[in-house]
Amino acid sequence: MDKLKILITFFSNTGNTEKVASSMKDGLTDHDVDMIAVKDVAPKTLNSYDIVFLGSGVYASRIDKSVLTLVKKAVPDLPSKLVYFCTHASLKLYQEPFKRINNIAKEHNCEIIGKFDCVGENLGIPLETQLGMLEKLPEDQKEKAIKDMEKMKGRPNELDLENAKNFATSLMKNL
């Protein structure tokens, strides 16, 4: 396969998504990869890349608005291929956080070639505040939420980051 020009751009409020982005970059050593925070990307440069990886934490079931704004400002100069990745403070990704970008991509013949999601410990809200919010839940729901928080502690962990790296590597092999 020819060497591809790839952009990995992301918004990371707590550092979780940036860790995933860095691991993905580690899996793309055979390619020319730029890893740039979304706030530092010029929208009109997106189409100079063969593939753009868009990443964000998920906040209230949505990606950060800076990622959506970047894509909107890039229209009609979108790359031909996009990859999505996100981190979220839930054990399962229930929502479609890239839904609005999907619509833009579809309108401009931009192919979504992969999606990766990863659990990330909620580092954006102090633990005391999180526990205080749980106090309002019925006892059985509160117990489950506390157990779930324990399962998310320290994530993304080494296994999660290795999975991100392997995802990026296998994605390129399957092109």
Short characterization:
With 175 residues, the chain is of the alpha/beta class. 39% of the residues lie in helices and 23% in strands.
What does it look like?
By secondary structure, the protein is α/β, with parallel strands linked by helices. The chain has helices at 16-26, 65-74, 99-107, 127-134, 139-152, 158-173, and strands at residues 5-11, 32-37, 51-59, 62-63, 81-88, 111-119. Strand 1 (5-11), helix 1 and strand 2 form a beta-alpha-beta unit. Helix 1 packs across helix 6. The longest helix has 16 residues, at 158-173. The chain is globular and about 55 Å long. The N and C termini lie close together (9 Å).
Helix-strand blueprint:
Blueprint lengths: L4 E7 L4 H11 L5 E6 L13 E9 L2 E2 L1 H10 L6 E8 L10 H9 L3 E9 L7 H8 L4 H14 L5 H16 L2
Parallel strand pairs: 1-2, 1-3, 3-5, 5-6
Antiparallel strand pairs: 3-4
Helix pairs in contact: 1-6
Output the helix-strand order. EHEEEHEHEHHH
What is the CATH superfamily classification of the largest domain?
Flavodoxin domain
How many beta-strand segments?
Answer: 6
- Mean pLDDT reading: 91
End-to-end gap: 9 Å
Question: Which segments are poorly predicted (pLDDT under 50) over 5 or more consecutive residues?
Answer: none
CATH architecture tag of the largest domain: 3-Layer(aba) Sandwich
Strand proportion, as a percent range, falls in: 15-25%
Count of all domains: 2
CATH class of the largest domain: Alpha Beta
Total count of helical runs of at least 4 residues? 6
Biggest sheet overview: 6 strands, mixed
CATH topology descriptor of the largest domain: Rossmann fold
Fraction of residues in H or I helices: 25-40%
Shape type: globular
Helix/strand-derived category reads alpha/beta
